[in-house]
Amino acid sequence: MTHSARDFYDSLAADYHRIFPDWDTSITRQAATLDALLHRELGPGPHQLLDCACGIGTQAIGLARAGHGVVGSDLSPVAVVRAAAEAAARGVRLRTVAADMRQLPFRPGAFDAVVCADNSLAHLLTTGDLEAALTDMRRVLVDDGLLLLTIRDYDEARRTHPTSVPPQVSHDADGRSITFQLWHWHDDGEHYDQEYFQLVPAGDGWKVRVRRATSWALTRDQVAAAATASGFTALTWHTPETSGFYQPVLTARAAAGPGIVPGHREGGFPR
């Protein structure tokens, strides 16, 4: 059974921060790591960025605070509303819009870089959907613009087919929360249904919240092939040991295409 990614993230938006031991610390740490990659690839900036799977703002808020012009989009309208509110609460300007990454509502060449983090690509369940998303990311980039994408280390998971992931304990104003996942693999050995459990404080006990989503355990070779087919070149994988990010990171450059002058960004964001 395939579970809707939008329903999953609409439901999870209020609790998403609980997957991190300390969400604000993660915002700062991830922004520093991604900003270092942006600086290495594009120079010091500031740059115009699209975070096309921004969720509640984990990467977008930190990158905006680092001085970049950031627009956040996400399939979940509930998540982008929270992202905008969380940014405002921290004194950060972040424009947000609910949008499917396969049909981004921005002009060609609107951004210097597109960020797609936190394993978001795994919710695209077919090669057609994967290439459609990457092709639209290429479309909204300037020529030679940067794609910065992060995904789980599914190469190992495809060999071992784990049925769960270790629990995470977080602390916030409400107390401790525990998050863990169970994975139910499909017969093809590539897709799996995820049961996402959160135990959150409720008086003297716990309340259990369960969400479900379907994911595609994409290998690095599959992601690279789709990115190449979608108009990206100079693909480079960065391991957590070399990048400092908690997932493997792919950087790639937007190949030159018709209608966009290299180095020129179209004015304005919405179509």
Automatic annotation (TrEMBL):
CDD domains: AdoMet_MTases. This is Class I SAM-dependent methyltransferase. It holds the Pfam family Methyltransf_25. Keywords: Methyltransferase, Transferase. Residues 50-145 form the Methyltransferase domain. One of its GO terms (molecular function) is methyltransferase activity. SUPFAM superfamilies: S-adenosyl-L-methionine-dependent methyltransferases. The lineage of its organism: Bacteria, Bacillati, Actinomycetota, Actinomycetes, Kitasatosporales. It comes from Streptomyces spinosisporus. GO terms for biological process: methylation. InterPro entries: Methyltransf_25, SAM-dependent_MTases_sf.
